[in-house]
Specification:
Length: about 150
């Protein structure tokens, strides 16, 4: 089913409402005294939750995940522009939550392409000294003379 231009143009506002909910999210925790309090805990925005759970509850028209990514990969269209902006907003919030709250590290590695490995590019010069282990009086500071 083709999506109307009005629906596509409404998606950024719907995404912003979802982001507002992610930012304002709280959870209940017990204090040391046993009192239950609400603590602010931002949620990582995900495309899956937005498409499959949140968006259908806000709108009569649904978008499947395959349609979302089809639109994302189109070039120079209203659909592509809209979806790329939504995706960028979700990634920006997710990156901020990971960086500032230390949670969602696996999300960052899998969805944001973050890594905990140091990637080095370039050549390195390595010096290797070959030692004759059969010499019992080996001293690394003495260079054998050529006799």
């Amino acid at each position: 089913m083709a999506k109307s231009k009005e629906f596509i143009e409404s998606l950024p506002d719907l995404a912003d409402k979802y982001i507002d909910i992610c930012i304002a999210s709280t959870k209940e925790v017990a204090t040391g005294s046993g009192k239950i309090v609400k603590v602010k805990e931002r949620h990582l925005p995900t495309i899956s939750y937005f498409l499959y759970i949140w968006l259908p509850r806000q709108s009569d028209i649904k978008i499947t995940r395959s349609t979302y990514y089809e639109w994302l990969n189109q070039e120079n269209t209203l659909k592509s522009y809209t979806i790329k902006n939504i995706d960028d907003k979700f990634k920006a919030l997710a990156a901020d939550i990971v960086a500032n709250e230390g949670k969602g590290i696996f999300y960052a590695k899998n969805k944001l392409g973050w890594t905990d490995r140091v990637q080095e590019n370039g050549d390195k010069q390595v010096t290797v000294k070959i030692v004759d282990e059969s010499t019992s009086s080996y001293n690394p500071d003495i260079t054998p003379s050529a006799e």
